[in-house]
Structure formats: structure tokens, C-alpha cells
Amino acid sequence: MFAEADTIKKITITDVAQHAAVSVSTVSLVLSGKGRISSATVARVHQAIEQLGYVRNRQAATLRGAASGVIGLILRDIGDPFYAEMTAGLSEALEAQGKVLFLTQSGRDGAGLMRCFDTLLTHGVDGLVLAAARSSPTICRRRRPSRACRWCAPRAPAAWRRWT
């Protein structure tokens, strides 16, 4: 049953370039939205992507130094209604910016928080939102990420939006 799926060739950026009769660099520029590419060429590349069923490998782009487009969220308890509302708002805000939310649950102990923090950093997230413990600032100082950001979920309660 699965043997057939294993033989299907993965469509690459090179395949898209050949199908659209452009260079790999042109496809890359179209995918990243950079460079000055004619609208006709952009349309050809998008048509090739659609026809071939190409799916961009974000991990490969991240290895080349590009942003991952992933923001990590560490929660103490995923079942808590406060965290559910916060996660929904954060997810909506990130999706509107073309980003993805990577959710982890730390539990109530410091070891779980450290595990989640390290996991997110090793997965190359572009930023972290810590909503897991009062000791979050201490952990940030101990495990300083190379890139950091702050996000505010518009659907979160007003008290949370003041958090910095």
C-alpha cells in the first residue's frame, strides 16, 4: 500500500524552473517575493508550481540563513481557557503575517520549561513567546536566543497585552 507512495518523485525548485523555462534563481526570487521579476514571469512560475504540485521546503530555506517563519509558544497548561484564548489570538496574528505557530506545553516545573525552550531554539524558531511561568525572564537571560521578538495577541485579555 505504501510502496507506491515511496516511489513518487519529490518536485524540486529545479523542476519548477525547467517547467517555467526560467532559472532556479528566478524561482527562488519569486518564492521569496524579492527582486524585480516581470509579472508574466511570476505568473509562469506560479503556474508551474500549481501544475507540478511543488511544496516549498521551509527547512531548506532556513539552512541557507533565511527566516524560518516559525514562532514558538511555550504554555504551562494547554487546557487552561486563558491559554486557549491567547493561543487563538496569537495564531491568527501570525497567520496574517504568513508565519506559523509552534506550540509546546511545559507543565508546572522548571525542567519542562527549559526542555521546551531548548527544543524551540534547536528547531530554529524566529522568536519565542513564553507564557509558562513567572521565571520566564530568568530563563531568557540564561538561554539568550540569537533572535527574539515580542508578539501581542489581539484576542487576548487586556491584562495579558500589557505583558512585556
From TrEMBL:
Pfam families: LacI (PF00356), Peripla_BP_1 (PF00532). PROSITE patterns: HTH_LACI_1, HTH_LACI_2. SUPFAM superfamilies: lambda repressor-like DNA-binding domains (SSF47413), Periplasmic binding protein-like I (SSF53822). Residues 11-65 form the HTH lacI-type domain. One of its GO terms (molecular function) is transcription cis-regulatory region binding. InterPro entries: HTH_LacI, Lambda_DNA-bd_dom_sf, Peripla_BP/Lac1_sug-bd_dom, Peripla_BP_I. Keywords: DNA-binding, Repressor, Transcription, Transcription regulation. This is Degradation activator. It comes from Serratia rubidaea (Serratia marinorubra).
